[in-house]
């Protein structure tokens, strides 16, 4: 009997165009759109450091140590790209023309009065160009001070200036996934929570006061518990398949590296599907109005997805700094965090904590729903 | 008039949709526009980096370093000791850089162990990371050089500080003459409007037209004795009225919100928005020719408008999209809307009315006509084959 009801529920969901559209098609369309929109940003983040095209005009007619510094900065190292790409001009007018036509971002003019930095707008590139001049003048100032106070150490100081000390070291966290991948995690979370519609539709199909199917079900000698359990199972299986399709599509067809083994991601999203379905069962057991059975899961899914970073990838971290408990209660944020932690740091305590909370939520929702649905008969609707 | 009134009343069913999208537009459009708005400037201004500092050393040198950062950058509380959480905060731009001064930092510097004396967390190799790492390296290099050249620690700190203060006089010359380098508040708001206005028009007008398709409603209108021309004119004018009213409200909302950033280009932005209104009406007619189911209308409108918004520069600027995607976007109406907005932004007010601007608006109208035509063909075929 379980298998038969499971199969019928399965068929009923598949034949519902509206559900197939939202649960299967919409995530794939959105993933494609995200790929077309953010694909370039994932591969080449616009915030990444890139070489600045700069012009240089020397009106002094003699070799300049500043020019040597600039030329040093045009050399790429093993770890980093070159800081500058240098274009030399005969006159300030020619350099200005190049800046206007965007051949160079800005330019330096070295004359007997000193070094002038000319930029078209404020921003990081302008500040970096100015910083290069400051560093140059700073080192000149240091040498002058030492020459005046401790001339015996001038040679040692000169050596240290040219030596380039490496005082700073960067923390390495291993797998550095792009922050834009967060959008795909949030998309998978949204897709998982969409399954709450499937469960509300299944519960609707069991209510004689809502659907024709419900009337037929009430007349049949079928156990209600078995019908609900088989319905939940079919919803989880369907949503898990839908999520797996999205994950495979993103990782294999769109070639976006989600940062973790595919089987692991599918297992996490299956747990997410169970979470969405159980949340839907809980909503369905609370609400008896047919119109609200669509509106409430939709609002629940979209609000949770928004706070997990579907529309704005920073929001989850903002919530984490202001009210972390909200992220522990938001099912979409939990799923996103679980996927993000697995992809970025591996199987850490946070990863297991997310899985435990999600599992507890699934069990909690189903237990509360069981209490609410217990002894609900046609006469008491 | 009764048909016109009935259609306007049917809009009541979509009041939640209108409120939701207007709220999204007001909140997110405003946030995005404020974040990206900039105006032409006269003087050079250094970029400051939002840096979170964890000082585990609490020595004279570490305090001097923190003091230097406080004077030149925006120093914030890291709110955690966990490097992993700091990394998340940096990656999601709660702050841009996290500096950790380890215990024994001062002793290490004095002992000449300068290699990797400080550690930092940054979101990869970014401009902010490069800039601040350079500044910190420069500062500490000075300290180390002074210490190794016979100065005491206090002298080295004082000299380096004076040197850094003196360097503040080294300023770049700003020649900021091109409007292309800046994005006005209007541009931000009207660009985001491309998504919300199209969604509003597609859903509201498609649902209204669907209401007229309802067999019961159309039968009652048919037997009313109203002339065929009158009832169709009433339907068309009601749909146009809804479109114009929604567009008008959106423009008024933008005008009210942008009072502090206002410029004299609002009229041209409004002109472009009214052209987009025709596209929205055309799309709604096309969508309602495909289906009469409100859920499916919602889904199709979402898929079409969201896709276009991502590909045509509404959510992600076209400069970050690949060349092939931008080429494909030429076949979508929203691309011409955003291109016209960029043109208005970059062009002086007295030169906006020109052939180029007219072409952008004309292409939008052509797209609207194409959608109408496609919708009419589908409706006719459906009627022909009784689908």
How does this structure look, described?
The complex is a heterodimer of chains A (381) and B (387). Helix content of chain A is 66%, strand content 7%. By secondary structure, chain A is of the alpha/beta class. Chain A has 2 domains: 2-43 and 178-380, no CATH class; 52-163, 3-Layer(aba) Sandwich (D-Maltodextrin-Binding Protein, domain 2), CATH 3.40.190. Chain A has a 4-stranded mixed beta sheet, with helices on both faces. The longest helix of chain A is centred in the middle third of the chain and has 30 residues, at 224-253. The mean pLDDT of chain A is 86. Chain B has 387 residues and is mainly α. Chain B has helices spanning 2-10, 15-36, 60-72, 83-91, 105-110, 127-148, 153-167, 185-213, 215-222, 228-257, 266-290, 294-311, 323-329, 333-346, 355-384, and strands at 50-55, 74-76, 97-101, 118-121, 173-174. Chain B contains 15 helices and 5 strands. In chain B, helix 3 links the parallel strand 1 (50-55) and strand 2. Chain B is 66% helix and 5% strand. Chain B is elongated, with a radius of gyration of 30 Å. A 4-stranded mixed beta sheet of chain B has the order 2-1-3-4. Classes of the chains: A alpha/beta (381), B mainly alpha (387).
């Amino acid at each position: 009997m379980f298998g038969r009801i499971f199969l019928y529920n399965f068929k009923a969901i598949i034949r519902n165009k509206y559900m197939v559209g939202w649960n299967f098609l919409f995530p794939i369309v959105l993933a494609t759109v995200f790929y077309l929109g953010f694909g370039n940003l994932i591969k080449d983040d616009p915030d990444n450091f890139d070489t600045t095209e700069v012009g240089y005009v020397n009106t002094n007619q003699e070799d300049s140590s500043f020019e040597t510094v600039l030329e040093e900065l045009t050399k790429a190292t093993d770890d980093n790209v070159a800081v500058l790409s240098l274009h030399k001009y005969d006159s300030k007018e020619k350099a200005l023309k190049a800046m206007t036509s965007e051949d160079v971002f800005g330019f330096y003019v070295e004359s007997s009065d000193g070094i002038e930095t000319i930029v078209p707008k404020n921003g990081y590139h302008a500040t970096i160009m100015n910083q290069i001049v400051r560093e140059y003048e700073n080192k000149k100032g240091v040498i002058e001070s030492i020459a005046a106070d401790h001339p015996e150490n001038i040679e040692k100081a000169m050596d240290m200036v040219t030596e380039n000390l490496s005082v700073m070291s960067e923390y390495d966290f291993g797998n550095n996934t792009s922050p834009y991948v967060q959008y795909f995690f949030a998309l998978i979370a949204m897709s998982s929570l969409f399954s709450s519609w499937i469960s509300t539709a299944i519960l609707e199909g069991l209510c004689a006061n809502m659907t024709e199917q419900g009337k037929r079900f009430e007349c049949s000698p079928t156990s209600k518990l078995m019908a609900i359990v088989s319905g939940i199972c079919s919803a989880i299986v369907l949503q898990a398949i839908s999520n797996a399709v999205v994950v495979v599509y993103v990782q294999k067809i769109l070639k976006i590296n989600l940062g973790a083994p595919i089987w692991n991601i599918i297992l996490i999203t299956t747990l997410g599907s169970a979470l969405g379905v159980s949340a839907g069962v809980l909503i369905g057991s609370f609400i008896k109005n047919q119109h609200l059975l669509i509106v409430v899961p939709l609002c629940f899914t979209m609000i949770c997805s928004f706070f997990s970073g579907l529309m704005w990838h920073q929001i989850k971290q903002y919530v984490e700094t202001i009210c972390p408990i909200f992220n522990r209660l938001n099912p979409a944020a939990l799923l996103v965090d679980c996927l993000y932690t697995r992809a970025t740091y591996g199987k850490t305590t946070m990863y297991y904590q997310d899985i435990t909370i999600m599992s507890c939520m699934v069990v909690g929702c189903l237990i509360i729903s069981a209490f609410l649905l217990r002894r609900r008969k046609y006469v008491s609707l | 008039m009764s048909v016109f009134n009935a259609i306007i009343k049917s809009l009541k069913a979509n009041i939640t949709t209108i409120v939701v999208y207007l709220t999204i537009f007001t909140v997110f459009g405003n946030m995005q526009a404020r974040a990206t708005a900039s105006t032409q400037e006269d003087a050079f201004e250094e970029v400051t980096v939002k840096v979170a500092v964890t000082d585990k050393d609490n020595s004279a040198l570490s305090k001097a370093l923190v003091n230097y950062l406080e004077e030149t950058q925006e120093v914030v509380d890291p709110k955690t000791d966990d490097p992993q959480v700091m990394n998340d905060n940096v990656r999601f731009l709660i702050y841009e850089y996290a500096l950790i001064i380890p215990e024994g930092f001062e002793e290490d510097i004095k002992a000449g162990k300068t290699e990797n004396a400080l550690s930092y967390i940054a979101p990869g190799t970014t401009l902010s990371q490069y800039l601040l790492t350079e500044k910190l390296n420069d500062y500490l290099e000075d300290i180390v050089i002074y210490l190794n050249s016979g100065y005491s620690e206090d002298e080295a700190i004082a000299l380096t500080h004076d040197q850094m203060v003196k360097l503040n006089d080294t300023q770049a010359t700003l020649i900021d003459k091109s409007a292309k380098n800046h994005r006005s508040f209007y541009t931000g708001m009207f660009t985001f409007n491309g998504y919300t206005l199209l969604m509003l028009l597609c859903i509201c007008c498609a649902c209204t037209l669907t209401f007229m398709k309802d067999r019961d409603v159309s039968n009652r209108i048919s037997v009313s004795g109203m002339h065929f021309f009158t009832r169709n004119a009433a339907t068309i004018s009601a749909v146009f009225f809804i479109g114009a009213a929604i567009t008008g409200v959106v423009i008024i909302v933008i005008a009210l919100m942008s009072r502090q950033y206002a410029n004299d280009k609002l009229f041209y932005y409004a002109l472009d928005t009214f052209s987009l209104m025709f596209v929205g009406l055309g799309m709604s007619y096309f969508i309602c020719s495909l289906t009469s189911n409100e859920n499916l209308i919602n889904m199709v409108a979402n898929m079409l408008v969201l896709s276009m918004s991502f590909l045509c520069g509404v959510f992600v600027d076209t400069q970050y999209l690949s060349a092939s995607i931008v080429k494909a976007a030429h076949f979508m109406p929203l691309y011409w809307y955003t291109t016209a907005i960029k043109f208005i932004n970059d062009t002086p007010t007295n030169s906006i009315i020109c052939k180029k601007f007219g072409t952008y608006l004309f292409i939008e109208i052509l797209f609207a006509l194409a959608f109408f035509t496609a919708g009419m063909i589908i409706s006719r075929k459906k009627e022909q084959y009784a689908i």
